[in-house]
Design goal:
TIM Barrel, two-stranded parallel ribbon, alpha/beta, 8-stranded parallel barrel
Length: 379
């Protein structure tokens, strides 16, 4: 197996296969099947919401590379007149800076820094992108999911329900007949904003937002994921956030950390360390299905998220490293990233699953190792 893996790593670094998940199943008897928001995925690696998922060309490149799912750039909810309670998040994106960031223990990692927040183009343009996403999803080649930031009030304020109703209704109409998959973004910049400085306010949002989104959809079904932030509080509060999210169909755990000195959100090893620590402590909770995000830079990191209950993972930074940081000699960034995540002979997901088998953590069923068996294991 290891000799075959080394050969595949070399071969696919020169020419990326069209269907690597089928090859992995046939060659290694490893089933990489995963899930997100009820959608069956060929493997667990998806693209998180951001600047890399805001137009048709980007989505088509993701589909060609074999990315399992994509979350669209986050749109800011509005009412019928175009008013937006979260207007401050609809600012133009600046150029992203891919930077090295050292963790507290000295490990060198990567982060991406930019000052923009949400979709800053006309809402009709976003609806056109949602229609394309729906077509791609129904084709079965790649799942693509819209993302929204809705109004979030202070404790003494009411929700702006007209924003929830108008935005959700238009998204449902654009998606079409099937139930709308939707990600509600509690962004990392929200953690740094004055809105995010009170625990009970945050818990109220998490408890009440799902019902308001569903009410906005009327009789049309919505499958809702809440992308939870890393709040500026301790691990115990992160657990309270998880417990408060019972109204969601899935949770994305957790968004980037907030640097109060630089006033930017950041990733790297500090982020994955905290996320994995919180998820491990919450493993006994009865939670909706999870999708992990945060410093997924190797297949082994993805497996650590899976061992804490995550049925898929979302990446952003790893899809935009300098080309010299990928071991593949050819291909798009998406292809080079997937090549490293899957076939790296030490850090890829295949090597990691074979090691888990050797250590007795993961057993074959019907002759196969299955990624989802890790997420479904109970402590």
């Amino acid at each position: 197996m290891l000799a075959r893996l080394a050969a595949d790593f070399e071969r696919f670094g020169r020419e990326w296969p069209r269907d690597f998940a089928t090859h992995v199943r046939e060659a290694y008897r490893i089933d990489l099947s995963a899930r997100y928001l009820g959608h069956a995925l060929r493997h667990p690696f998806g693209k998180a919401s951001g600047q890399l998922s805001l137009n048709e060309d980007q989505l088509e490149a993701d589909r060609t590379a074999g990315v399992a799912f994509v979350v669209l750039k986050t749109v800011i909810a509005q009412d019928e007149a175009g008013a937006r309670g979260m207007e401050a998040w609809a600012i133009h994106e600046t150029r992203m800076r891919v930077e090295r960031r050292a963790a507290a223990d000295g490990r060198e990692g990567w982060t991406v820094t930019w000052n923009g927040r949400g979709w800053d183009r006309p809402f009709e343009d976003y609806l056109a992108l949602v229609r394309l996403a729906a077509e791609m999803t129904r084709s079965g080649t790649m799942v693509a999911v819209p993302s929204v930031k809705y109004h979030l009030p202070r404790l003494d304020e009411t929700f702006r329900d007209p924003e929830y109703e108008f935005t959700t209704r238009r998204l449902v109409d654009a998606w079409g007949e099937d139930g709308l998959p939707l990600e509600k973004d509690f962004s990392p910049t929200l953690a740094g904003d004055a809105l995010g400085d009170e625990q009970e306010r945050i818990l109220r949002w998490i408890r009440e937002v799902p019902a308001r989104i569903r009410a906005g959809a009327g009789t049309r079904p919505v499958r809702l994921a809440l992308k939870l932030m890393n709040a500026r509080f301790d691990d115990a509060f992160q657990r309270r956030m998880l417990e408060a999210a019972s109204g969601a169909d899935a949770l994305v755990v957790f968004n980037r950390l907030w640097d109060s000195d630089r006033r930017v959100a950041y990733g790297g090893w500090d982020l994955s360390d905290r996320n994995l620590r919180v998820l491990a402590a919450a493993r006994t909770l009865a939670l909706p299905p999870l999708s992990g995000t945060g410093n997924v830079v190797t297949g082994r990191v993805a497996l650590e998220y899976a061992r804490r209950g995550c049925e898929s993972v979302q990446l952003h930074t790893f899809f935009q490293l300098p080309l010299s940081e990928y071991p593949a000699a050819a291909g798009t960034r998406q292809q080079r990233a997937l090549h490293a995540l899957v076939f790296h002979p030490r850090d890829g997901i295949i090597a990691g699953m074979l090691d888990l088998e050797a250590s007795g953590v993961l057993a074959r069923r019907g002759g196969e190792l299955r990624f989802l068996d890790l997420a479904e294991q109970r402590p």
